[in-house]
Amino acid sequence: MSRHADFYRIMLSPFGRNAHDCLVYFDVSWRDIFSVELKKIAWSSYNLSLTSDNMSAVNLLSELLDVRARRLEIYGYNTDEIDCLISFVCSD
Q1: 28-39 as b/e, with b when 16 or more CB fall inside 10 Å?
Q2: At what angle do helices 52-68 and 79-91 cross, to 10 degrees?
Q3: pTM, two decimal places
Q4: pLDDT in tens, 51-73
């Protein structure tokens, strides 16, 4: 990606437009687009927008997805029950 093109917003690709829009949204300089800090800024901004109820649901959903992917184990629940719980959390 050309920094010059991004700076003057003449990107023709969806990736370039998305990168530019992210820079504007998170108020980050185009010089910092490849920095590791950009990822931290994005996650910090996202986490600040979550309510405590939403954060609890996100954490629960994360754990349920880990169970479904067999990275975690919950005894006494089968795959269909885990899928049902995931659907409930997502639709609430």
Answers
A1: bebeeeeeeebe
A2: 160
A3: 0.50
A4: 888 888 888 999 999 999 989 98
DSSP state for residue 69 in the 8-state scheme: T
Q: Which amino acid is at 55?
A: M
- Say if residue 67 is exposed, middle or buried (CB neighbours under 10 Å; 0-12, 13-18, 19+): middle
Main-chain phi, psi angles of 78, to 5 degrees: -95, 175
Residue spans of the domains in the chain: they are 3-49, 52-91
Q: How many residues does the chain have?
A: 92
Decide: 67 and 73 in contact? Cβ < 8 Å. Answer: yes
d(CA 40, CA 43): 5
d(CA 54, CA 66): 18
